[in-house]
Amino acid sequence: MARLRSLIAGLALFCAAPALAQQPARTIAKGDATITLGGTAQYLFSSDGSLANAITPADGAEVCNPDASVDLWVSDSGVAAANAAGSDRVPANGGCYIWRYQPLGPISVVGATTGKPVTARRW
């Protein structure tokens, strides 16, 4: 009888527990780009690479570097610059930097060589 009471109490707790909240579906948008001028920062998720047209990702972002030889630098707090405060390195050959939170602002990227690819996603 004690086992039955214990089972009933457990079921009562299970039924009374709030349902787990389901995460809303996220929309993922591409922001792939090419370094337009080596050594000059540009903004991702922008129609023309400018700050004026840049979008700040709502919930997070990822920037990856598919180039085999040239590192990239990214920043969500200003203009990206190599080895500078507020900028993070995205290593060559598949390195990625992920914001698992809303970035502080639009994401800028800089690479040393014109024409190098940048793979980016925002959500």
Question: Could you list some keywords that capture this structure?
Answer:
123 residues, alpha+beta, 5-stranded antiparallel β-sheet, 4-stranded antiparallel β-sheet, 9 strands, 27% strand, elongated
In short:
The protein has one helix and nine strands, in the order αβββββββββ.
Description:
This protein is α+β, with helices and mostly antiparallel strands and 123 residues long. 12% of the residues lie in helices and 27% in strands. The strands form 2 sheets. Strands 1, 2, 4, 7 and 9 form a 5-stranded antiparallel sheet that branches. A 4-stranded antiparallel sheet has the order 3-8-5-6, with no helix packed on it. The longest helix is centred in the N-terminal third of the chain and has 15 residues, at 2-16. The chain starts with a helix and ends with a strand. The relative contact order is 0.28. The model has no long low-confidence stretch (mean pLDDT 89).
**Proportion in helices:** 10-25%
What coarse outline follows from CA principal-axis ratios? elongated
Structural class: alpha+beta
Q: Major beta sheet, specifics?
A: 5 strands, antiparallel
Number of strands: 9
Radius of gyration: 22 Å
Rounded to the nearest angstrom, the distance between the terminal CA atoms is: 53 Å
Residue fraction in strands: 25-35%
Low-confidence stretches: none
Q: Helix and strand layout, with pairings?
A:
Elements: H1 2-16, E1 29-30, E2 33-34, E3 42-43, E4 61-65, E5 72-75, E6 88-90, E7 95-99, E8 108-111, E9 117-122
Antiparallel strand pairs: 1-9, 2-9, 3-8, 4-7, 4-9, 5-6, 5-8
